[in-house]
Amino acid sequence: MNARTRPAAHPDGAATTYREALREALRDALASDERVFLMGEDVGRYGGCFGVSLGLLEEFGPDRVRDTPLSESAFVGAGIGAALAGMRPIVEIMTVNFSLLALDQILNNAATLRHMSGGQLGVPLVIRMTTGAGRQLAAQHSHSLEGWYAHIPGIRVVAPATIDDARHLLPAALADPDPVLLFEHGSLYNASGTLDPAVRGVGLDRAMVRREGADVTVVAYGGCVPKALEAAEDLAGSGISAEVVDLRTLRPLDDATIIDSVRRTHRAVVVDEGWRSGSLSAEIESRICEQAFFDLDAPVERVCSAEVPIPYARRLEEAALPQPAGIVAAAQRAVG
User: Fold this and answer.
1) Nearest CA to 225 among 327, 301, 128?
2) With CB atoms 3.0 to 4.6 Å apart as the test, which of 105, 160, 187, 280 could cross-link to 165 if both were Cys?
3) Active site members
4) CA–CA distances in Å: residue 202 to residues 34, 42, 199
């Protein structure tokens, strides 16, 4: 099959990838609601920079899958306008660093219009973007800025880490009356597996315990969830039972699931590909200390990216990012 021809659909239970699960979510949204359309740079003829929208232009036509000029502020603004007019736009921003060119639209318009209009105006907009490092794209294209956006009231921020969430988070995001930012970690696109036929919907409000444990809670999201699960497997070999909590939604955080886990394990490690200073990990650590301080048997540990622009050289890049070995070491310190 030619690399740029339309891929076939993958039914539940069949082998698929994170990329293909996202594509199926887009296809289903376009087919089931005529108000939905996709727009962004290279989403049409090229099939998306990361191949997520491959084949959708041929299936739904240029009115529903729209290639845009290279102006993030312009096409995010157009998406906001379309949402205000009753459409359900899905805007793709190629990589998270380019979203900074649309930050004014996201922060000052999308996030605020419902509140500034006294509830008269809603912006049911979904913005998808690739985030994270680990692919040797150097400093400009290796940011993890989800924590920045999780700081903003008026929007939801979600980070699917599994194939099932990649498939099922988009419908929930489209149903939300307010803007939803969906962060897809670039290292996950080729991750393979099967869709669970029992999963028919995923909410935007709850974290998920991906692995149960008794000795330490490991909190992660997005591209760090597989690393946390790998670390938990390594820890099991040394007799430490780690519980892995996948945040899924970064704003609003599901405090209840996090705190419930910490109260059972009495220790916590927070894994965040963002930089440590002013990070989402700092917010999570603060909430654990505020709500479960007397349940802790050890200080909360954090595993974050090094405080440097992400290097290009592979070994330096690997050294700068959270890795399973670092998560293992943090958990071992917590358990003592």
Assistant:
1) 327
2) 160
3) 72, 141
4) 22, 28, 8
Per-residue pLDDT of the chain (336 residues; tens, 9 = 90+): 334 455 655 565 678 999 999 999 999 999 999 999 999 999 999 999 999 999 999 999 999 999 999 999 999 999 999 999 999 999 999 999 999 999 999 999 999 999 999 999 999 999 999 999 999 999 999 999 999 999 999 999 999 999 999 999 999 999 999 999 999 999 999 999 999 988 888 889 999 999 999 999 999 999 999 999 999 999 999 999 999 999 999 999 999 999 999 999 999 999 999 999 999 999 999 999 999 999 999 999 999 999 999 999 999 999 999 999 999 999 999 999
Amino acid at residue number 302: R
Alpha helix (H) residue ranges in 33-99? 56-60, 72-84
Q: Position of tokens 């399973």?
A: 324
- From 46, 54, 44, 67, select the one nearest 22 (Cα to Cα): 54
Give the number of residues written for the chain: 336
Q: Starting from the edge strand earliest in sequence, which strands make up the sheet with 65-67, in order?
A: 65-67, 36-40, 88-95, 126-131, 180-185, 156-158, 249-251
pTM for the model: 0.93
> 3-state class of 65 per DSSP?
strand
Question: How far is residue 68's CA from residue 53's CA, in Å, rounded to a whole number?
Answer: 14
